[in-house]
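Entry 14. Ran structure prediction on the chain below.
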Amino acid sequence: MGCFMTRSAAREIAIQLGFSVASGAQEPERAVQEFFEPEHYASLAAEGELYSEKPSKRDMDFIRRSVAGVAERRQELDGLIGRYAKGWRPERISRSAAAILRQAMFEILYMPDVPDASAIDEAVELAKGYEDQDVVAFINGVLGGFYRGEVSHEEAPAPAAETDHE
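Output, structure tokens:
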């Protein structure tokens, strides 16, 4: 694995920081800066493997672009979530589910270097670590509808691997 994190780990950290920024706690750049201060980041390593490796310059760039971009376009992204969250009142959508949806939609719309299918698959996989199956299915459905409605005007990209075991 080396000494650098995966894009999945960078994405998860970006979502966590986006969650923190969305709660009004901090400005995006300050949140990123404080999060990665060596002492703070080192203290996180005890919490889990996610923080055991240092982000590469490329991953830091991804995290910074994500956190700043999601914050800057929050109103637009929340509008899209509202449009595709059929049957769910906004207050029913957990803050972590909203953060995951914002990140995936931002990647699809504004990060051409990220394959759309990866943004969707990774969002669904990450959701499994934070949400119950109903919410995971909701996130998958919202992103599929969003992708068809805003991007492809066809079918959503097929998942790389089938992970449902129902």
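The chain has eight helices and no strands. Will compare against last week's run tomorrow.
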